[in-house]
Write the structure tokens for this entry.
Amino acid sequence: MCVDPLDQIKKSILLIEELHELPAADRTCPCCGSERPEIGEERSTEYDLIPAHVVKIVHVRKKYGPCRCEAFEASK
């Protein structure tokens, strides 16, 4: 059985996940003040080459949808 060298490299890479999230004040509905629901996230990956190390950094950006309050719906 042949071992793929790329698979061995991928297994040896250090993974760092950085979470990019809005501050609590920016996640609130401007109309009613309740917290907006999280509707997903976007991920992007970058590779940094540090002498003798390869590091995989995954950036996670939380996404938020509109509040479902009546005041917010009326402001559209």
